[in-house]
Every structure is written in C-alpha cells, then in structure tokens.
Amino acid sequence: MAPEQPPALSIRHLRKTFGAHVVLDDLDLDITAGTVFALLGPNGAGKTTLVRILATLIDPDHGDVHVFDHDLARNPDAIRRLIGVTGQYTAVDGILTGTENLRLTGRLLHLGKHETRRLSTELLERFDLVDAADKPVDSYSGGMRRRLDLAMSLMGKPRIVFLDEPTTGLDPRSRRDVWSAIRELAAQGTTIALTTQYLEEADQLADRIAVLDHGRIVADGTPAELKRLVPGGHVQFRFADRTLLAAAAHAVDGRVDPEQLTLQVPSNGSAVQIKQLLDRFADLDIAIEQLTVHTPDLDDVFFALTERTEAAA
After folding, report:
1. Which pLDDT score is estimated for 89?
2. pLDDT at 189
3. Could you please report the per-residue DSSP string of 205-219?
4. By percentage, how much of the chain surpasses pLDDT 70?
5. 9-227: in CATH 1.10.260.40
6. C-alpha 233: how far from its chain's center?
7. Radius of gyration of the chain (CA)
C-alpha cells in the first residue's frame, strides 16, 4: 500500500490578534491536495489575515502551519517555492503589456530566459490572453486583468494557489471567465484555496467549504453536507382560489398564506416526495396552478451559521 499523502495544508491552533482584537481564534483546518477549498465569511471574519499568514507575509501569534509537510515557522522559504498568491486587488503593472508582466515575474523568480518565455506563452494561451498579449494592461477589462494576475501567480509552477476574493468587483461575465480559469487549473491537479463572499462562487467551484466567523470555523464540509445542516426545504403550491387552497390545506399539513393563495409543505425536494403530494391532490381533484421547490442553499447556511455566532457573542 502506498503511503498516505500529506494534506496540502494543515493548520492547528492558529491565533492572530491586532492589539486587543482577536482576528483568528484557535483555528484548525486541513486542505486535501488536488482539491478546491473555499473559505466563506463576512467582512472582518479573518479571511484575508489567514491568506497573508499562509503567504508568509505576516506571522501568527500562535499555532502550527504546514504546507506539504513544510513547517511555516521553520522553513518559510520552502513554502514560498510551493505557493502562488492572488490578492483581492490585481498586482499587474498597467503600463506593461501582458507578456511583459509575465516575463517580469519570471525574472523575479529567477526562472531563466528560456523557461520564462516558455511559461509566458503557455499561460497566455491557457488564460485566453494571446490576442491581448502585446497590449498595455491598462487597456484590459477587469476580467482580463484578473486572469493575467492569476497567470502571474502560476509562473513559479506552485503546488497550491491562494486566491483572496478573486472575483471581487467583476461583472457577472468576467466572474464566470475567472471561474472557468480556476476550474481548468484545478483539473490539472493544482490545489486551490480561495476566500470569497460570493456564496454562488463557493458552490460552483469548491469541493469543500468552511465558514469562518469571528475568527473561528463554524462549519466545514462539502456543499451538500453544509446545506443539510439547515432546515427549511419546502414545496410551495399555488391555487386559483381559496376553495382549492382550503381543500389542499385539509389534505396536507403545511403553512397557508391566504393572501398569496399558497400552501407551503415541508419537503426535502425529492422527486418521490413531490410525486406523492401531486398524487394526493390529483386523487382529490385539487387543481394546482403553480409549484415551486425550495431546498436550502448556501445563502441559508451562511446566514443561519453567522447569525448563530452573533447571538452567542
């Protein structure tokens, strides 16, 4: 049997304060190699501080961090060779062209002239920037600048990439372009850890999600596992008049809204359960005007968990 691979990232009892303000509070976290991990949290939850620690930009007050078995405190140089980082704001030079930005990054990494040119060409193609490669970055759209920034973080061929709110400020089309780039990167085996406030972004991209609030992880699991933490799934039926609504409410337990002519029935959203409800109404000759299914999503999870920690504070 092959030996078990170490996690890409392992954090134990991490703590960081700024004066009297506790930003990260006894944080534990593991990220499996080759996966996409998303850290969700409101403003001020500690997401960016965590990325800055992992990028070796600031030191924690306490705790152990290992990146592919390298100890952050003892060997930060080894960790710097393994990581790529893209911050909330692009680090590109607007006066230079896309190609020049990439080649400057290669020189800073001491990659050598041939390797720098090879990687620059490869990354421009991968991130669909070939047509704009020789144009000043000041002429790029927000999405193009973000893709170039991501490409620059890959010049050192990192094994793990930290993306701190990678689509902040982008329009929906540009955001989806960046998502495509991240998916392609993950498909090639790079471990990705991203922070985001966009719940849809985490749901679309992540194999696993943790929710950070007040410096602590308050939930951790796959998107499906997190959604199961929150009750509230239901099927809503709308009827043409109050007579049909009353008949439906008599046949099935649920919450009635006489103004909207709706009956809300608790449900897990399964096809079997919905068919049973429809068959019940059909047997009683109760006509349904409209049916909608709501299952808990990450919005529900996020608000439930962060409200819970607010109440406990």
Report:
1. 65
2. 87
3. H-SEEEEEETTEEEE
4. 95
5. no
6. 23
7. 24
* DSSP conformation class of 53: H
SS3 275: helix
Return d(Cα 106, Cα 154) in angstroms, integer: 10
Could you read off the pLDDT of 27-62 as tens digits, one per residue?
Answer: 999 999 999 999 988 888 888 899 999 999 999 999
Query: Strand 191-196 vs strand 9-18: parallel, antiparallel, or unpaired?
Result: unpaired
Are 190 and 286 contacting, i.e. CB atoms less than 8 angstroms apart?
no
Residue ranges of alpha helices (H) inside the chain are: 47-54, 76-80, 98-108, 113-126, 142-153, 172-187, 199-205, 223-227, 242-251, 271-283, 298-312
Percentage of the chain lying above the pLDDT 90 cut: 49
- Rounded CA separation 246/264 (Å): 13
Torsion sign across C-alpha atoms 172, 178, 184, 185: negative
Q: How far is CA 191 from CA 36, 152, 170, 196, 235, in A?
A: 6, 16, 23, 16, 38
Fold of the domain built from segment(s) 234-294? Alpha-Beta Plaits (3.30.70)
- pLDDT given for residue 299 in this prediction: 76
Model pLDDT, residue 223? 87
Q: What is the DSSP letter of 176?
A: H
d(CA 239, CA 5): 57
Q: What number of CA atoms fall less than 13 Å from residue 68's CA on the CB side?
A: 15
Q: For 266, what's the count of Cα atoms within 13 Å in the CB-facing half-sphere?
A: 4
Asked if 147 and 129 count as a contact pair (C-beta separation under 8 A), the reply is: yes
- Domain range list for the chain: 9-227, 234-294
Q: Which two tokens stand for residue 66?
A: 């290992």
Q: How far is CA 284 from CA 21, 190, 278, 281, in A?
A: 62, 56, 10, 5
